[in-house]
Design brief:
The protein is α/β, with parallel strands linked by helices. The protein folds into two domains: 253 residues, Aspartate Aminotransferase, domain 2 (3-Layer(aba) Sandwich), CATH 3.40.640.10; 114 residues, Aspartate Aminotransferase, domain 1 (Alpha-Beta Complex). 43% of the residues lie in helices and 13% in strands. It has 14 helices and eleven strands. The strands form two sheets. The chain has a seven-stranded mixed beta sheet, sandwiched between helices. A four-stranded antiparallel beta sheet has the order 8-9-11-10. The longest helix is centred in the C-terminal third of the chain and has 36 residues. The radius of gyration is 24 Å and the shape is globular. The chain starts with 11 loop residues before the first helix and ends with a helix. It binds pyridoxal-5'-phosphate (PLP).
């Protein structure tokens, strides 16, 4: 007979003690995270010296392993939910969803087929229908699927668009996206075997928006040359600047040209919940498919992306594939097997955290948080514009703002400014006080703040800007140029 440990089991008492220790650690993290430093850094050598060993043949005390992991792994990772984590896209998360994930994992719910968990499939159907309604997509005919993230949602959308528009003959198919579109779209196109010649990167205009004039002429040219245009990808909230492409105009072009209209709203989609975001996202309801990313601005922990689709039948007609061992669980049409609607067969129960956090906090809390995020970015823009030291390079849009240190009257060259701002960001990073990195806009090195954490206070932003100014003074003094 196998011992408990050989069945990978703990006693009831051990399980409880272990679980409570984890809850204690997570709660302590939630309670103290705002006061910690957000950044983590270590070399490969340092990490190797801590963790590198042969796979252990013998068992260890569970609590000892847990304590080691809490101290050396969890507390040594960047805190993407920290109020001063401004870079990339922060992950503010929330406790209800974190615990819901634990619940889903604890019961190991299989969220692939209806038969394995009718409530899991139902909650995915219900929460997807909430999202369809929020984005103005048809709730009855529409559908969608939760994915690991926005990248997988974009991949799922592009595969679907190609299947519906081109069938199996896509040698001449071409797709259009702007030069500000997210890299995951290009990655997806590479994964599905598209060559560079099939991808049209259309330059954006001076406001970083998809140029519809250039789009139209590219489509005409391609048709003349015998290509088969099939899809346009617009972005609703670019990751760089928060810019929303002219969705209504692009939708019109797609209608006229009979093209699939995919909108990548992975970053900005959630802003539809805020009054000040809804206006900007006008036209989002025209999408044939729409990516949103609940693990970004819907405050869910990783991993959770979502693809919404105007006609749910297209997902099934793209992805259904029936191996013999799944014959017995096909069931009723309306009882969706989500493995038929996307890439994964075995799927974790992602819908649960979305469902529980929305039920618990209510949509209103999400609306308030997102509205607050947009407003704090606008306040930051005002503050920067009032100062003689800062230049706003891209205005606060969907809680993202880009700016650079460029004091009036100093007449630095572009190269000096690039250097200076790069170094300011480097010093902030080295201080560990905030995560504030640069991006490139109009060929300029700029600082970028993404302010989607509802626990970020305006004081936090001001403190970070003062820190930057202090570093700028140091840098300039050391060059004798202050
Ligand atoms: C973040 C992002 C993605 C990729 O989403 P992941 O969840 O990181 O896979 C795609 N598009 C846009 C616009 C994004 O901001």
């Amino acid at each position: 007979m196998l011992m408990d440990r050989d069945k990978l089991q703990l006693s009831k008492e051990e399980m409880k003690a272990y679980g409570y220790s984890i809850v204690d650690a997570v709660v302590e993290h939630f309670e103290t995270q705002d006061k910690k430093l957000p950044l983590a850094s270590a070399t490969r050598e340092e990490m190797d010296s801590l963790f590198l060993e042969e796979a252990p043949e013998q068992s260890s005390d569970p609590q000892e392993v847990l304590d080691f992991v809490i101290e050396k792994v969890m507390k040594k990772s960047a805190i993407v939910s920290h109020p001063k984590f401004y870079s990339f896209v922060p992950g503010p998360s929330n406790y209800i969803s974190a615990m819901s994930d634990t619940l889903a994992t604890g019961f190991n719910v299989f969220s692939g087929g209806w038969a394995q968990s009718p409530p899991a499939a139902e909650l995915e159907i219900v929460t997807i229908s909430w999202l369809l309604k929020i984005f103005g997509l048809p709730v009855k005919k529409g559908g969608g699927i939760f994915t690991s993230g926005g990248s997988m949602a974009n991949l799922t959308a592009i595969v679907t668009a190609r299947r519906v528009m081109c069938g199996e003959n896509f040698a001449n198919a071409v797709i259009y996206l702007s030069d500000q579109a997210h890299s995951s779209n290009i990655k997806a196109l590479r994964i599905i075997g598209f060559t560079r010649e099939q991808i049209r990167l259309i330059p954006t205009d001076s406001e970083f928006k998809f140029s519809t004039i250039k789009l139209k002429s590219a489509i005409s040219r391609d048709r003349l040359e015998g290509y088969n245009p099939f899809c346009v990808i617009a972005t609703a909230g670019t990751t760089n600047t928060g810019t929303v492409d002219p969705l209504e105009a692009i939708s019109k072009i797609c209608k006229e040209e009979k093209l699939w209209f995919h909108i990548d709203g992975a970053y900005g989609g959630a802003a539809i919940l805020a009054k000040n975001g809804k206006q900007l996202l006008k036209g989002v309801s025209k999408a044939d498919s729409l990516t949103v990313d609940p693990h970004k601005w819907f405050f869910q922990p990783y991993e959770m992306g979502c693809l919404l689709i105007r006609n749910h039948k297209y997902l099934k007609s793209t992805f259904v594939e029936k191996p013999e061992y799944l014959r017995d669980i096909e069931g009723n049409e309306s009882e969706i097997n989500f493995y038929d609607h996307g890439v994964q067969l075995t799927r974790r129960f992602r819908a649960l955290k979305f469902y529980m956090s929305l039920k618990t906090f209510g949509l209103k809390a999400f609306r308030n948080a997102i509205t607050y995020n947009i407003v704090i970015a606008e306040k930051t823009e005002k503050l920067l514009r009032k100062s003689k030291k800062w230049e706003v390079v891209s205005p606060a849009t969907l809680a993202i703002i880009n700016f650079r240190y460029n004091p009036i009257g100093e007449n630095f060259s572009e190269k000096e400014l690039d250097n200076l701002n790069q170094k300011i960001s480097g010093k902030v990073t080295a201080s560990g006080e905030a995560q504030l990195v640069t991006t490139i806009l109009n060929k300029q090195v700029v600082l970028r703040m993404c302010l989607i954490n509802p626990r970020t206070k305006f004081e936090d932003v001001k403190a970070t800007l003062s820190l930057c100014e202090g570093f700028a003074n140091e840098l300039l003094a050391s060059k004798g140029k202050s």
